[in-house]
Amino acid sequence: MNSSERFKAILKRISDTHDKKQADYGTSEDPFANISASTEFGIEPWVGTVLRMNDKMTRIRSFIKNGTLKNESIQDSLLDICVYAAIALVKYEESVEDNYDHLCEWGSHEFNENLLNIYGGPCINCGEDYTELIRLHGKGLA
To answer: Which residues contact 84 (CB under 8 A, 6 or more apart)?
Structure first.
């Protein structure tokens, strides 16, 4: 198996594992209910997910230092980081969607000076890149 095939196989494994674990952690309304629960402590879900990634990084640093782990393999920790990164991205994008009128769905938009910091790059729904439009608007040129 070449590197690209191995990469795709790992992504499939991550997806399959997510589907299995979702039944234990999520609900039909929120597949990441366990992650979303961080709001009960005043922590944005995507930030809470990054904190979980840090726990895995601590475990990986231990492996690098000691050459062994007692409770899970280095492969499991690396896969968990991949999963947490994807979940953090999902939860971040959801938080961004809650903070602006989606550009491709509305004819007029309310822009603010922080919009480019909140949302810069391709639209997560339609793929259009509004970065330049947002930048021009902030300079009063759009």
So the answer is: 49, 50, 52, 53, 56
What's the gap between Cα 99 and its chain centre?
Answer: 16
Q: Which residues contact 49 (CB under 8 A, 6 or more apart)?
A: 35, 84, 87, 88, 91
Question: Nearest to residue 109, comparing CAs of 131, 132, 137, 136?
Answer: 137
CA-only gyration radius of the chain, Å: 19
Task: Retrieve residue 10's tokens.
Answer: 């790992």
Rounded Cα gap, residues 116 and 134, in angstroms: 6
User: What are the helix (H) ranges across the chain?
Assistant: 3-25, 33-36, 45-66, 74-97, 115-118, 131-138
What is the structure's pLDDT at 109?
40
pLDDT tens for 7-47 read 999 999 998 888 888 888 888 888 899 999 999 999 989 99
